[in-house]
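Hi V.,

Quick status before I head out on leave. The structure for the redesign project is tokenized and pasted below; the design run finished overnight.
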């Protein structure tokens, strides 16, 4: 029990032995000991039996398995007896060893086949690690890299790559592409190319890459050579002046050059695969019928053919070209036709040139009429009884020499062409009109009597009168002769016609001379300021000066003529120069300063104007030598030119022109005074001023 502080206050211990308890404890101890002994004995028996029945066979089984593992000999087997579970396990192990042995044999056989295939394949195969180091290569790869196995295993693939190949391997995304890539390698300073597939290979978590390639170095070289040959062919086809079309064996177009494109109107892309007859459409230039396509003719003949003459190619746009040349088959090594090539050229211009040459060989280039060579051939053909009466008209163009000398050969050529036009308009189609010589024409009229020939001459003259030109009347002198019977020599007929023509020419010559001066005066009045009143005023004043200077009587006639014809050369100048009111251009001034020379030639060609020819040439010369065209001065200038020059200038100043108003006589005299000693003769000006001051109204 406890006290008030909760501590024990009283302890009572009673000890008394108990027999039954003691005996029970001993009995329990004996029992436990007996059980332990029995258990130990039982465990010993069990362990013995277990070791004999289980552990010993298991140890033996383990030893055999360890032996198989150590020797890698799958032919060894586990012994077994009885039908217990351990025996069954041994049987299963033996059966498994049999299967593994069979699989191992198959695996070795497969490995041998794969290794043989790997080593003997013609395609290079190699395996590289992540760093590009070679792990394995077959013989083709060693041959490609030109190394033995020991050498190349010390290298990386990067050591053999070109710049282009290096860029491929630096991009990991290229490592898993299924398509083949052309990779260039540099081996022994030579370029080689692999068509390569590079794929990942993972073994035991180690990533590597295997490449399967095809050596296409030779193919690349051939492709380059083929490309070069194609480039040479392409450049040749483009530069060649002929059109070239190539087809396959079915006649479908495969190649066209630029000339063929131009002539056919088809471009290469449009024409590719089209049948040749759709692009190359040809016809006969004479009949207009279609020609047989050259492709079919080549197939039928099996050899080169030439295109027919007069072959016309009709382009896609409808343009037509005369063409020439050939078509040939293309054969393979077995001599089988695999296509054909058509080579053609545009001969339109050449044909036209030949036709022009042929035309010119029988025609006069200027007039387009037949020439004398053709006439000589035709006169032989027409000199037959069936063509009689055969009339001949010989013609000679009037005033041709005058026109050529004065106005130039262009004007004379124009006259000849107008006469040729008139002759063609009068004659029939069967009549032969020829230019016989420079200014002579000849007409050969089959089945035409003399009376009919004379009527034709009248019609020719009538047409000439109705087709007058501004420069000079168109006129031709004609002579006629006729052959009525075969006995008459045709050459005598030609001479007779020529004689009649010259006789008529003599009769007309005086009449023509009389017409030239009035006609020239008429032409002169078409120029502003040049009119009859002007001529009269200048003539009167010039004669007054001549009288004051006591000139010889013959010079008064020259003064009168020169007053009218001093600027006659202007009739041959272009109208735009004569009528121009502003400043003349340099080339226009050049033409203007030519008119005194033209006037001189005109006067030399006319008996009436011949006395004033030199005065016309010198009319624009100045007293100080600054004039044109000769630059003479002072008294070297004819006195008639000096007199008319003063009064002509005075009269033009005192009368209205389209581009300026007239000035007073006093103002005009002042302007003339300003040119004393430069443009005008001082003595003549002094006489003229005295005359005008003495009686100014005389001009009226």
């Amino acid at each position: 029990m406890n006290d008030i502080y909760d501590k024990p206050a009283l302890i009572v211990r009673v000890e008394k032995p108990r027999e039954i308890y003691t005996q029970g404890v001993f009995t329990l101890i004996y029992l436990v000991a007996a059980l332990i002994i029995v258990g130990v004995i039982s465990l010993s028996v069990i362990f013995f039996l277990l070791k004999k029945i289980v552990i010993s066979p298991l140890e033996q089984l383990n030893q055999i398995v360890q032996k198989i593992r150590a020797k890698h000999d799958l032919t060894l087997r586990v012994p077994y007896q009885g039908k217990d579970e351990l025996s069954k396990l041994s049987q299963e192990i033996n059966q498994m060893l049999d299967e593994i042995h069979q699989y191992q044999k198959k695996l070795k056989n497969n490995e041998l086949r794969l290794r043989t295939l790997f080593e003997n394949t013609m395609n290079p195969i190699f395996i590289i690690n992540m760093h590009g180091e070679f792990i394995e290569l077959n013989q083709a790869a060693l041959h490609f890299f030109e190394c033995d196995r020991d050498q190349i295993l010390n290298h990386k693939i990067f050591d053999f790559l070109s710049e282009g190949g290096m860029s491929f391997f630096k991009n990991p995304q290229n490592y898993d592409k299924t398509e083949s890539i052309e990779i260039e390698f540099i081996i022994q300073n030579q370029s080689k190319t692999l068509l390569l597939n590079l794929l990942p290979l993972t073994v035991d978590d180690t990533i590597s890459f295997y490449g399967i390639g095809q050596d296409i170095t030779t193919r690349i070289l051939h492709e380059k050579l083929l490309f070069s040959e194609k480039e040479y062919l392409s450049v040749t086809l483009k530069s060649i002046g002929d059109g070239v079309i190539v087809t396959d064996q079915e006649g479908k177009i495969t190649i066209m050059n630029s000339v063929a494109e131009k002539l056919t109107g088809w471009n290469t892309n449009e024409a590719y695969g089209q049948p040749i007859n759709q692009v190359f459409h040809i016809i006969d230039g004479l009949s207009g019928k279609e020609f047989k396509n050259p492709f079919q003719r080549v197939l039928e003949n099996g050899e080169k053919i030439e295109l027919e003459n007069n072959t016309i190619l009709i382009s896609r746009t409808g343009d037509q070209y005369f063409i020439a040349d050939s078509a040939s088959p293309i054969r393979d090594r077995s001599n089988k036709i695999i296509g054909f090539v058509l080579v053609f050229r545009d001969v339109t211009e050449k044909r036209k040139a030949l036709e022009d040459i042929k035309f010119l060989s029988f025609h006069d280039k200027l007039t387009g009429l037949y020439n004398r060579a053709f006439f000589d051939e035709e006169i032989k053909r027409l000199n037959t009884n069936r063509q009689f009466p055969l009339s001949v008209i010989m013609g000679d163009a009037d005033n041709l020499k005058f026109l050529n000398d004065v106005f130039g050969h262009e004007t004379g050529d124009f006259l000849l062409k107008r006469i040729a036009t008139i002759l063609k308009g009068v004659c029939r189609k069967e009549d032969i009109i020829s230019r016989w010589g420079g200014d002579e024409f000849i007409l050969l009229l089959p089945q035409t009597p003399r009376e009919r020939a004379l009527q034709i001459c009248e019609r020719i003259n009538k047409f000439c009168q109705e087709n007058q030109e501004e420069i000079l009347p168109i006129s031709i002198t004609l002579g006629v002769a006729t052959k009525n019977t075969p006995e008459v020599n045709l050459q005598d007929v030609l001479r007779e016609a020529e004689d009649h023509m010259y006789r008529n020419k003599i009769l007309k010559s005086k009449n023509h001379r009389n017409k030239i001066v009035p006609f020239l005066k008429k032409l002169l009045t078409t120029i502003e300021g040049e009119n009859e009143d002007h001529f009269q005023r200048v003539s009167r004043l010039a004669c007054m000066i001549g009288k004051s200077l006591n000139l010889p009587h013959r010079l008064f006639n020259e003064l009168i003529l020169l007053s009218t014809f001093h600027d006659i050369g202007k009739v041959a100048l272009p109208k735009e120069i004569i009528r121009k009111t502003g400043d003349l251009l340099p080339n226009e001034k050049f033409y203007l300063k030519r008119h005194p020379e033209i006037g001189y030639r005109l006067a030399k060609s006319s008996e009436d104007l011949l006395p004033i020819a030199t005065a016309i040439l010198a009319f624009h010369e100045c007293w100080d030598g600054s004039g044109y065209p000769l630059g003479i001065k002072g008294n070297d200038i004819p006195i008639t030119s000096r007199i008319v020059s003063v009064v002509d200038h005075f009269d033009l100043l005192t009368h209205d022109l389209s581009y300026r108003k007239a000035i007073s006589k006093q103002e005009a005299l002042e302007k003339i005074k300003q040119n004393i000693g430069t443009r005008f003769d001082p003595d003549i000006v002094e006489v003229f001023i005295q005359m005008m001051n003495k009686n100014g109204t005389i001009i009226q």
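Above is the designed sequence. The mean pLDDT is 82.

G. will cover questions while I'm gone.

Best,
W.
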